[in-house]
Write a structure and sequence with these properties.
By secondary structure, the protein is an all-alpha fold. It is about 60% helix and about 0% strand. It is built from 21 helices and 2 strands. The longest helix is centred in the middle third of the chain and has 26 residues. It starts with 17 loop residues before the first helix and ends in an 8-residue tail after the last helix. This is HAT C-terminal dimerisation domain-containing protein.
Length: about 475
Protein backbone atom coordinates (compact mmCIF):
# COMPACT_ATOMS: atom_id res chain seq x y z
CA UNK A 1 0.00 0.00 0.00
CA UNK A 2 1.61 3.22 -1.18
CA UNK A 3 0.69 6.91 -1.33
CA UNK A 4 0.90 8.36 -4.84
CA UNK A 5 1.46 12.03 -5.61
CA UNK A 6 0.14 12.94 -9.05
CA UNK A 7 0.37 15.95 -11.33
CA UNK A 8 -3.14 17.11 -12.24
CA UNK A 9 -2.99 20.30 -14.24
CA UNK A 10 -1.00 23.44 -14.98
CA UNK A 11 -3.02 26.53 -14.15
CA UNK A 12 -2.59 30.07 -15.42
CA UNK A 13 -2.69 32.55 -12.52
CA UNK A 14 -3.43 36.19 -13.32
CA UNK A 15 -3.08 37.37 -9.70
CA UNK A 16 -1.09 35.94 -6.80
CA UNK A 17 -3.26 37.16 -3.94
CA UNK A 18 -4.70 34.64 -1.52
CA UNK A 19 -8.23 35.22 -2.81
CA UNK A 20 -7.25 34.75 -6.46
CA UNK A 21 -5.31 31.57 -5.68
CA UNK A 22 -8.29 30.22 -3.72
CA UNK A 23 -10.55 30.73 -6.74
CA UNK A 24 -8.07 28.88 -8.97
CA UNK A 25 -7.80 25.95 -6.55
CA UNK A 26 -11.56 25.64 -6.08
CA UNK A 27 -12.11 25.75 -9.84
CA UNK A 28 -9.47 23.06 -10.35
CA UNK A 29 -11.06 20.80 -7.73
CA UNK A 30 -14.50 21.27 -9.29
CA UNK A 31 -13.26 20.49 -12.83
CA UNK A 32 -11.68 17.23 -11.65
CA UNK A 33 -14.61 16.18 -9.42
CA UNK A 34 -12.67 16.57 -6.17
CA UNK A 35 -14.54 17.41 -2.98
CA UNK A 36 -12.94 20.05 -0.79
CA UNK A 37 -14.12 18.14 2.28
CA UNK A 38 -11.92 15.19 1.28
CA UNK A 39 -8.76 17.31 1.47
CA UNK A 40 -6.78 16.42 4.59
CA UNK A 41 -3.56 18.37 3.97
CA UNK A 42 -2.04 21.23 2.00
CA UNK A 43 1.63 22.02 1.52
CA UNK A 44 3.21 25.26 0.31
CA UNK A 45 6.31 27.35 0.91
CA UNK A 46 6.41 30.19 3.41
CA UNK A 47 5.33 33.06 1.15
CA UNK A 48 2.77 35.37 2.78
CA UNK A 49 0.13 34.84 0.08
CA UNK A 50 0.36 31.07 0.66
CA UNK A 51 0.98 30.70 4.40
CA UNK A 52 -0.68 33.88 5.71
CA UNK A 53 -2.68 33.31 8.88
CA UNK A 54 -5.60 35.52 7.86
CA UNK A 55 -5.63 36.04 4.07
CA UNK A 56 -3.19 33.38 2.87
CA UNK A 57 -4.32 30.49 0.69
CA UNK A 58 -3.96 27.96 3.49
CA UNK A 59 -6.22 29.93 5.87
CA UNK A 60 -8.86 30.41 3.15
CA UNK A 61 -8.90 26.67 2.40
CA UNK A 62 -9.19 25.89 6.10
CA UNK A 63 -12.27 28.13 6.38
CA UNK A 64 -13.98 25.74 3.99
CA UNK A 65 -12.43 22.61 5.51
CA UNK A 66 -10.80 23.02 8.91
CA UNK A 67 -9.27 19.53 8.68
CA UNK A 68 -7.09 20.53 5.69
CA UNK A 69 -3.92 20.95 7.75
CA UNK A 70 -1.28 23.29 6.36
CA UNK A 71 2.25 21.86 6.46
CA UNK A 72 5.08 24.24 5.63
CA UNK A 73 7.47 22.51 3.21
CA UNK A 74 10.06 20.86 5.45
CA UNK A 75 12.85 21.36 2.91
CA UNK A 76 12.13 25.11 2.88
CA UNK A 77 11.98 25.13 6.69
CA UNK A 78 15.42 23.54 6.95
CA UNK A 79 16.69 26.11 4.48
CA UNK A 80 15.35 28.93 6.67
CA UNK A 81 16.96 27.34 9.73
CA UNK A 82 20.38 27.60 8.09
CA UNK A 83 19.71 31.17 6.94
CA UNK A 84 18.89 32.32 10.47
CA UNK A 85 21.83 30.41 11.96
CA UNK A 86 24.25 32.14 9.60
CA UNK A 87 23.01 35.49 10.94
CA UNK A 88 23.73 34.47 14.53
CA UNK A 89 26.95 36.52 14.82
CA UNK A 90 29.13 38.85 12.79
CA UNK A 91 31.85 36.24 12.27
CA UNK A 92 29.61 34.04 10.11
CA UNK A 93 28.15 37.03 8.26
CA UNK A 94 31.66 38.10 7.30
CA UNK A 95 32.65 34.51 6.51
CA UNK A 96 29.93 33.89 3.90
CA UNK A 97 30.57 37.33 2.39
CA UNK A 98 34.25 36.47 1.86
CA UNK A 99 33.36 33.06 0.38
CA UNK A 100 31.08 34.69 -2.19
CA UNK A 101 33.64 37.41 -3.00
CA UNK A 102 36.35 34.80 -3.53
CA UNK A 103 34.17 32.87 -5.97
CA UNK A 104 33.22 36.06 -7.84
CA UNK A 105 36.82 37.24 -8.03
CA UNK A 106 38.16 33.99 -9.55
CA UNK A 107 35.25 32.55 -11.52
CA UNK A 108 34.04 35.75 -13.23
CA UNK A 109 37.34 36.30 -15.02
CA UNK A 110 38.57 33.80 -17.62
CA UNK A 111 42.15 34.95 -17.12
CA UNK A 112 42.09 34.62 -13.33
CA UNK A 113 40.25 31.31 -13.51
CA UNK A 114 42.90 29.85 -15.83
CA UNK A 115 45.69 31.10 -13.57
CA UNK A 116 43.98 29.56 -10.52
CA UNK A 117 43.71 26.21 -12.36
CA UNK A 118 47.43 26.38 -13.22
CA UNK A 119 48.25 27.05 -9.57
CA UNK A 120 46.29 23.95 -8.52
CA UNK A 121 48.09 21.82 -11.11
CA UNK A 122 51.48 23.10 -10.00
CA UNK A 123 50.83 22.49 -6.29
CA UNK A 124 48.92 19.20 -6.67
CA UNK A 125 49.87 17.58 -9.99
CA UNK A 126 48.39 14.21 -9.04
CA UNK A 127 45.00 15.54 -7.94
CA UNK A 128 41.94 16.54 -9.92
CA UNK A 129 41.42 20.27 -10.44
CA UNK A 130 38.45 21.57 -8.47
CA UNK A 131 36.16 24.46 -9.36
CA UNK A 132 34.92 26.92 -6.76
CA UNK A 133 31.17 26.58 -6.22
CA UNK A 134 28.73 29.46 -6.11
CA UNK A 135 26.77 30.04 -2.91
CA UNK A 136 23.09 29.51 -3.63
CA UNK A 137 20.83 32.23 -2.22
CA UNK A 138 17.81 29.92 -1.99
CA UNK A 139 19.19 26.42 -1.41
CA UNK A 140 21.46 26.84 1.58
CA UNK A 141 21.87 23.10 1.99
CA UNK A 142 23.77 23.14 -1.33
CA UNK A 143 26.42 25.36 0.26
CA UNK A 144 27.96 22.16 1.57
CA UNK A 145 29.66 21.61 -1.81
CA UNK A 146 31.06 25.14 -1.82
CA UNK A 147 32.50 24.81 1.69
CA UNK A 148 34.03 21.38 1.03
CA UNK A 149 35.67 22.70 -2.15
CA UNK A 150 37.15 25.71 -0.33
CA UNK A 151 38.64 23.44 2.35
CA UNK A 152 40.44 21.45 -0.37
CA UNK A 153 41.65 24.30 -2.59
CA UNK A 154 42.39 26.88 0.13
CA UNK A 155 46.23 26.52 -0.09
CA UNK A 156 46.09 26.96 -3.87
CA UNK A 157 43.73 29.94 -3.56
CA UNK A 158 46.02 31.65 -1.04
CA UNK A 159 49.08 31.01 -3.18
CA UNK A 160 47.35 32.40 -6.27
CA UNK A 161 46.26 35.56 -4.42
CA UNK A 162 49.81 36.10 -3.10
CA UNK A 163 51.30 35.64 -6.58
CA UNK A 164 48.78 38.08 -8.02
CA UNK A 165 49.53 40.66 -5.35
CA UNK A 166 53.31 40.46 -5.85
CA UNK A 167 53.42 40.16 -9.66
CA UNK A 168 55.53 42.67 -11.58
CA UNK A 169 54.27 44.70 -13.41
CA UNK A 170 51.33 45.04 -10.99
CA UNK A 171 48.05 43.49 -12.05
CA UNK A 172 44.91 45.64 -11.97
CA UNK A 173 43.29 43.13 -9.62
CA UNK A 174 46.20 43.18 -7.15
CA UNK A 175 44.34 45.50 -4.79
CA UNK A 176 41.31 43.23 -4.60
CA UNK A 177 43.59 40.23 -4.12
CA UNK A 178 45.21 42.00 -1.18
CA UNK A 179 41.81 42.67 0.41
CA UNK A 180 40.82 39.03 -0.01
CA UNK A 181 44.08 37.89 1.57
CA UNK A 182 43.50 40.10 4.57
CA UNK A 183 39.92 38.76 4.88
CA UNK A 184 41.04 35.11 4.87
CA UNK A 185 42.31 35.21 8.44
CA UNK A 186 42.11 32.91 11.44
CA UNK A 187 38.44 33.74 12.05
CA UNK A 188 37.68 32.71 8.45
CA UNK A 189 39.40 29.35 8.96
CA UNK A 190 37.59 28.78 12.25
CA UNK A 191 34.18 29.53 10.72
CA UNK A 192 35.02 27.23 7.80
CA UNK A 193 35.83 24.36 10.17
CA UNK A 194 32.67 25.00 12.20
CA UNK A 195 30.22 25.41 9.30
CA UNK A 196 31.40 22.58 7.02
CA UNK A 197 30.44 19.58 9.21
CA UNK A 198 27.13 21.22 10.17
CA UNK A 199 26.20 21.89 6.54
CA UNK A 200 27.27 18.37 5.55
CA UNK A 201 24.84 16.83 8.03
CA UNK A 202 21.96 19.19 7.22
CA UNK A 203 22.56 18.51 3.52
CA UNK A 204 21.89 14.82 4.12
CA UNK A 205 18.65 15.72 5.89
CA UNK A 206 17.66 18.09 3.07
CA UNK A 207 18.09 15.37 0.44
CA UNK A 208 16.02 12.96 2.50
CA UNK A 209 13.25 15.54 2.96
CA UNK A 210 12.94 15.90 -0.82
CA UNK A 211 12.22 12.23 -1.49
CA UNK A 212 8.96 11.40 -3.21
CA UNK A 213 7.83 8.58 -0.92
CA UNK A 214 8.76 10.19 2.41
CA UNK A 215 6.11 10.45 5.09
CA UNK A 216 5.99 12.81 8.07
CA UNK A 217 6.96 10.11 10.56
CA UNK A 218 10.17 9.35 8.65
CA UNK A 219 10.80 13.08 8.20
CA UNK A 220 10.62 13.71 11.94
CA UNK A 221 12.94 10.76 12.57
CA UNK A 222 15.53 12.45 10.37
CA UNK A 223 14.97 15.81 12.06
CA UNK A 224 15.34 14.18 15.47
CA UNK A 225 18.71 12.86 14.34
CA UNK A 226 19.84 16.31 13.16
CA UNK A 227 18.77 17.89 16.43
CA UNK A 228 20.58 15.18 18.38
CA UNK A 229 23.77 15.79 16.39
CA UNK A 230 23.58 19.54 17.07
CA UNK A 231 23.35 18.81 20.80
CA UNK A 232 26.32 16.42 20.58
CA UNK A 233 28.41 19.01 18.75
CA UNK A 234 27.89 21.56 21.51
CA UNK A 235 30.67 20.25 23.73
CA UNK A 236 33.97 21.70 24.78
CA UNK A 237 36.00 18.79 23.41
CA UNK A 238 34.32 19.12 20.00
CA UNK A 239 35.28 22.77 19.78
CA UNK A 240 38.81 22.04 20.99
CA UNK A 241 39.29 19.69 18.04
CA UNK A 242 37.93 22.30 15.62
CA UNK A 243 40.10 25.03 17.17
CA UNK A 244 43.24 22.88 16.95
CA UNK A 245 42.49 21.99 13.32
CA UNK A 246 42.02 25.67 12.42
CA UNK A 247 45.28 26.51 14.21
CA UNK A 248 47.16 23.83 12.27
CA UNK A 249 45.77 25.03 8.93
CA UNK A 250 46.68 28.63 9.79
CA UNK A 251 50.27 27.64 10.59
CA UNK A 252 50.59 25.60 7.38
CA UNK A 253 49.37 28.52 5.25
CA UNK A 254 51.28 31.31 7.05
CA UNK A 255 48.14 32.91 8.45
CA UNK A 256 48.76 34.78 11.68
CA UNK A 257 46.92 33.62 14.79
CA UNK A 258 45.73 36.49 17.00
CA UNK A 259 47.28 36.70 20.44
CA UNK A 260 44.81 39.14 21.97
CA UNK A 261 41.08 38.73 22.43
CA UNK A 262 39.28 40.74 19.70
CA UNK A 263 37.16 43.73 20.58
CA UNK A 264 36.99 45.94 23.63
CA UNK A 265 37.57 44.18 26.92
CA UNK A 266 34.66 44.15 29.31
CA UNK A 267 34.95 46.52 32.23
CA UNK A 268 35.10 44.86 35.64
CA UNK A 269 31.81 45.51 37.53
CA UNK A 270 32.10 47.79 40.55
CA UNK A 271 30.95 45.06 42.91
CA UNK A 272 33.92 42.93 41.85
CA UNK A 273 36.51 45.69 41.84
CA UNK A 274 37.64 45.09 45.41
CA UNK A 275 37.11 41.32 45.51
CA UNK A 276 39.73 38.63 45.08
CA UNK A 277 41.60 38.19 41.82
CA UNK A 278 39.99 34.82 41.14
CA UNK A 279 36.51 36.39 41.19
CA UNK A 280 37.52 39.00 38.61
CA UNK A 281 39.13 36.34 36.41
CA UNK A 282 36.04 34.14 36.48
CA UNK A 283 33.94 37.06 35.28
CA UNK A 284 36.04 37.69 32.16
CA UNK A 285 37.08 35.57 29.18
CA UNK A 286 40.50 34.12 29.89
CA UNK A 287 41.79 32.79 26.56
CA UNK A 288 41.25 33.25 22.84
CA UNK A 289 39.79 29.74 22.59
CA UNK A 290 37.18 30.57 25.23
CA UNK A 291 36.26 33.73 23.36
CA UNK A 292 35.60 31.96 20.06
CA UNK A 293 33.91 29.05 21.78
CA UNK A 294 31.34 31.33 23.41
CA UNK A 295 30.97 34.12 20.85
CA UNK A 296 31.16 32.04 17.65
CA UNK A 297 30.71 28.30 18.17
CA UNK A 298 28.06 28.16 20.89
CA UNK A 299 26.17 31.11 19.43
CA UNK A 300 25.93 29.41 16.03
CA UNK A 301 24.83 26.03 17.41
CA UNK A 302 22.37 27.57 19.89
CA UNK A 303 20.65 29.55 17.15
CA UNK A 304 20.59 26.43 14.95
CA UNK A 305 18.95 24.41 17.72
CA UNK A 306 16.44 27.15 18.54
CA UNK A 307 15.37 27.49 14.91
CA UNK A 308 15.02 23.71 14.49
CA UNK A 309 12.81 23.49 17.57
CA UNK A 310 10.76 26.57 16.66
CA UNK A 311 10.10 25.69 13.03
CA UNK A 312 9.58 21.93 13.36
CA UNK A 313 8.47 21.44 16.97
CA UNK A 314 6.82 24.76 17.75
CA UNK A 315 3.35 25.51 19.09
CA UNK A 316 0.09 25.75 17.18
CA UNK A 317 -2.95 23.71 16.26
CA UNK A 318 -1.31 22.09 13.24
CA UNK A 319 1.79 21.18 15.25
CA UNK A 320 -0.33 19.60 17.99
CA UNK A 321 -2.27 17.43 15.53
CA UNK A 322 0.88 16.42 13.62
CA UNK A 323 2.66 15.51 16.86
CA UNK A 324 -0.39 13.51 17.96
CA UNK A 325 -0.37 11.64 14.65
CA UNK A 326 3.36 11.06 15.10
CA UNK A 327 2.71 9.32 18.43
CA UNK A 328 0.57 6.72 16.66
CA UNK A 329 3.75 5.15 15.26
CA UNK A 330 5.53 4.92 18.63
CA UNK A 331 4.82 1.66 20.52
CA UNK A 332 6.20 3.13 23.75
CA UNK A 333 3.29 5.59 23.88
CA UNK A 334 0.65 2.82 24.10
CA UNK A 335 1.99 0.19 26.50
CA UNK A 336 -0.20 1.02 29.49
CA UNK A 337 -3.95 1.59 29.64
CA UNK A 338 -3.63 5.15 30.94
CA UNK A 339 -1.22 6.28 28.22
CA UNK A 340 -2.27 8.32 25.19
CA UNK A 341 -5.61 9.56 26.53
CA UNK A 342 -4.99 13.17 25.46
CA UNK A 343 -3.62 12.10 22.08
CA UNK A 344 -6.60 9.91 21.29
CA UNK A 345 -9.06 12.59 22.46
CA UNK A 346 -7.48 15.39 20.37
CA UNK A 347 -7.34 13.26 17.20
CA UNK A 348 -10.89 11.94 17.51
CA UNK A 349 -12.24 15.40 18.25
CA UNK A 350 -10.40 17.02 15.33
CA UNK A 351 -11.34 14.37 12.73
CA UNK A 352 -14.96 13.96 13.84
CA UNK A 353 -14.57 10.58 15.52
CA UNK A 354 -16.33 11.47 18.74
CA UNK A 355 -16.90 8.45 20.94
CA UNK A 356 -14.05 6.48 19.35
CA UNK A 357 -11.35 7.51 21.84
CA UNK A 358 -11.49 4.27 23.82
CA UNK A 359 -11.62 2.14 20.66
CA UNK A 360 -8.61 3.98 19.24
CA UNK A 361 -6.53 3.41 22.39
CA UNK A 362 -7.48 -0.27 22.43
CA UNK A 363 -6.64 -0.68 18.72
CA UNK A 364 -3.24 0.96 19.21
CA UNK A 365 -2.32 -1.23 22.19
CA UNK A 366 -3.39 -4.42 20.41
CA UNK A 367 -1.77 -3.42 17.10
CA UNK A 368 1.65 -2.62 18.60
CA UNK A 369 1.50 -5.75 20.77
CA UNK A 370 0.54 -7.98 17.83
CA UNK A 371 2.77 -6.65 15.05
CA UNK A 372 6.38 -5.49 15.16
CA UNK A 373 7.04 -2.80 12.58
CA UNK A 374 10.68 -2.82 11.45
CA UNK A 375 10.72 0.98 11.50
CA UNK A 376 8.72 3.68 13.26
CA UNK A 377 7.33 5.03 10.00
CA UNK A 378 3.88 5.28 8.43
CA UNK A 379 5.09 3.33 5.41
CA UNK A 380 6.10 0.42 7.63
CA UNK A 381 2.70 0.43 9.37
CA UNK A 382 0.84 0.50 6.06
CA UNK A 383 2.82 -2.53 4.88
CA UNK A 384 1.74 -4.39 8.03
CA UNK A 385 -1.89 -3.44 7.38
CA UNK A 386 -1.62 -4.72 3.80
CA UNK A 387 0.14 -8.00 4.61
CA UNK A 388 -2.25 -8.94 7.43
CA UNK A 389 -5.48 -7.34 6.16
CA UNK A 390 -5.45 -5.45 9.47
CA UNK A 391 -7.58 -2.56 8.22
CA UNK A 392 -10.66 -4.67 8.99
CA UNK A 393 -9.54 -5.27 12.58
CA UNK A 394 -8.33 -1.72 13.30
CA UNK A 395 -10.60 0.60 11.23
CA UNK A 396 -10.15 3.78 13.30
CA UNK A 397 -6.38 3.45 13.46
CA UNK A 398 -6.22 2.67 9.75
CA UNK A 399 -8.15 5.82 8.89
CA UNK A 400 -5.83 8.04 10.94
CA UNK A 401 -2.71 6.36 9.53
CA UNK A 402 -3.94 6.98 5.97
CA UNK A 403 -4.50 10.65 6.82
CA UNK A 404 -1.03 10.92 8.34
CA UNK A 405 0.54 9.27 5.28
CA UNK A 406 -1.28 11.68 2.98
CA UNK A 407 -0.07 14.85 4.70
CA UNK A 408 2.64 16.51 2.55
CA UNK A 409 6.25 16.65 3.70
CA UNK A 410 7.74 18.97 1.08
CA UNK A 411 6.89 20.63 -2.22
CA UNK A 412 9.95 19.20 -3.98
CA UNK A 413 7.82 17.13 -6.38
CA UNK A 414 5.87 20.26 -7.36
CA UNK A 415 9.07 22.15 -8.08
CA UNK A 416 10.36 19.23 -10.16
CA UNK A 417 7.35 19.70 -12.44
CA UNK A 418 8.64 23.21 -13.20
CA UNK A 419 11.98 21.67 -14.11
CA UNK A 420 10.13 19.41 -16.53
CA UNK A 421 8.33 22.49 -17.87
CA UNK A 422 11.64 23.85 -19.16
CA UNK A 423 12.16 20.65 -21.16
CA UNK A 424 8.62 20.51 -22.55
CA UNK A 425 8.22 24.17 -23.47
CA UNK A 426 11.26 24.40 -25.70
CA UNK A 427 12.03 26.92 -28.43
CA UNK A 428 10.05 24.85 -30.94
CA UNK A 429 6.97 24.87 -28.66
CA UNK A 430 7.15 28.53 -27.78
CA UNK A 431 3.64 29.20 -29.13
CA UNK A 432 2.11 26.23 -27.31
CA UNK A 433 -1.28 26.99 -25.76
CA UNK A 434 -2.11 26.60 -22.06
CA UNK A 435 -4.31 23.51 -22.43
CA UNK A 436 -1.92 21.67 -24.75
CA UNK A 437 1.06 22.55 -22.57
CA UNK A 438 -0.71 21.16 -19.50
CA UNK A 439 -1.51 17.92 -21.35
CA UNK A 440 2.08 17.55 -22.55
CA UNK A 441 3.34 18.08 -19.01
CA UNK A 442 0.95 15.43 -17.74
CA UNK A 443 2.32 12.92 -20.27
CA UNK A 444 5.94 13.84 -19.47
CA UNK A 445 5.60 13.73 -15.67
CA UNK A 446 3.29 10.74 -15.17
CA UNK A 447 5.13 8.29 -17.41
CA UNK A 448 4.36 5.32 -15.17
CA UNK A 449 0.63 5.50 -15.94
CA UNK A 450 -0.23 3.18 -18.80
CA UNK A 451 -2.09 4.52 -21.85
CA UNK A 452 -4.69 2.47 -23.70
CA UNK A 453 -3.79 3.11 -27.34
CA UNK A 454 -7.12 1.75 -28.61
CA UNK A 455 -9.03 4.25 -26.49
CA UNK A 456 -6.77 7.08 -27.69
CA UNK A 457 -7.38 6.04 -31.31
CA UNK A 458 -11.11 5.93 -30.66
CA UNK A 459 -11.04 9.48 -29.30
CA UNK A 460 -9.12 10.72 -32.34
CA UNK A 461 -11.65 9.11 -34.68
CA UNK A 462 -14.58 10.66 -32.83
CA UNK A 463 -12.92 14.09 -32.88
CA UNK A 464 -12.04 13.95 -36.60
CA UNK A 465 -14.11 11.25 -38.37
CA UNK A 466 -13.42 12.55 -41.87
CA UNK A 467 -9.65 12.91 -41.45
CA UNK A 468 -7.08 10.30 -42.32
CA UNK A 469 -4.93 9.30 -39.38
CA UNK A 470 -1.30 8.38 -39.97
CA UNK A 471 -0.11 6.08 -37.16
Amino acid sequence: MTIKERFVQLCDVASTTGEALENVVMKLLEQNNFNIQDVCGQGYDGAANMSGRYNGLQSRIQRQNERALYVHCHAHCLNLVLVESAKSNKHFVDFFTVVERLYTFIANSTKRHAAFVDTQKAMNPDQRVLELQRLSDTRWSCREDALKTIRKVLPAALQYLRDLRECDPPDLAAGEAKMLLSSIDFEFLLCLEIATPVFMETSVASKVLQQDDLDLAAAYSVLDGVLKRVVELRRDNQFSQIYNTATTIAEENDISIPTNIPGRQRKVPAKLKYTSKSAREDDAVQTLEEYYRGRTYYTFLDRLRQELERRFYGEGKTRDIVMSLQRLTDPEQWKDIGQGVDTAHSLCEFYGLQGEETNLQTELRVFHASYKCPKRTVKSMLEVFKENNANVIFPTLFKLIKIYATLPVSTAAVERSFSKLKLVKSRLRNQCGQERLSDLLLLAIEKDIGIDKKEVLKIFVEMAPNRRLLL
